[in-house]
UniProtKB/TrEMBL annotation:
Lineage top rank: taxon: Bacteria
Domain named ABC transporter: residues: 6-228
UniProt xrefs under Pfam families: ABC_tran (PF00005)
UniProt keyword annotations, A-Z: ATP-binding, Nucleotide-binding, Transport
GO MF entries: ATP binding; ATP hydrolysis activity
Name by which UniProt lists this protein: ABC transporter ATP-binding protein
Amino acid sequence: MTGNAVETAGLGRRYGKNWALRDCTLQLPAGRIAALVGPNGAGKSTLLHLMVGLLQPSAGTVTVFGDSPAGSLAHVGFVAQDTPLYRDFSPTELIELGRRLNRSFDVALAKERLAHLGIAMDRAVGKMSGGQRAQVALTLAFAKRPRLLLLDEPVASLDPLARREFLQSLMGGVADEGTTVLLSSHLLGDLERVCDYLIVLNHSQVQVVGGVDELIADHRVLIGPADIEAHGLTVVQERRTNRQATLLVRGYDPNVTPIDPQWTVHDVNLEDLVLAYLANEGAFSGPVGVRP
Ligand SMILES: Nc1ncnc2c1ncn2[C@@H]1O[C@H](COP(=O)(O)OP(=O)(O)OP(=O)(O)O)[C@@H](O)[C@H]1O
């Protein structure tokens, strides 16, 4: 599938005088598994709620597969942070509800997944553990066979085994169906394993957006003696001790910007990259590394 699953332009949402999300312009290309990361209160849930039309923008626009959020709802699966389900309903009843509400609802997939997870089909979800409830909510979202799956911290309440199972089925599902996924989480290690696109929000604004491979390729860690500089490079994060300097830089190309040979150059991983940007929130006011 080509094109963008989601496009936002100047999107913002305000509560009173405070912006929960501000001037957010981004594209999420179809078929990607995207990580949405940022500190508490950065605006991640707000962005997801705007994408499904649960919130209305105070500024700007958001489209999903070229349509309004309301117009594209049939193609979107959403699991909110608190996995809201009808607490008195059992999985059997929720599956029946899903089938009646969505013509494409995959009853067999839902039943198989819950059986595989050992979840009681006739027990009210209100009596289940938080992790089991999360699994039921995720299963219902999967079974809708959406083109876009929006997940707000879906693995937070899952145990390590369940987390791995969930992430594997997520990758499998996307490979099979071409589903676009946007997944908010604080677990950077998990995200690194499954995501190929990254959106970093910080203080209500987009700080980084782009393909993970392109972003990794565009950044390097330089390590050298404490007293040398890296002239001509964009430094995202700089740490100096008495003996050593460690810089995370963007756009390093040895053919364009020769550096002091005392620097050693190292690759970055996603976790280092995200943490460097989050630690240096003031340095960049708009998105960087935009190469979908
Ligand atoms: N209903 C509301 N009324 C007032 N302010 C709100 C409301 N919902 C969110 N906010 C504020 O908007 C900002 C963004 O909140 P949001 O829930 O989108 O952040 P988040 O990145 O999802 O955070 P977390 O990682 O803690 O879930 C926060 O400062 C929050 O206090």
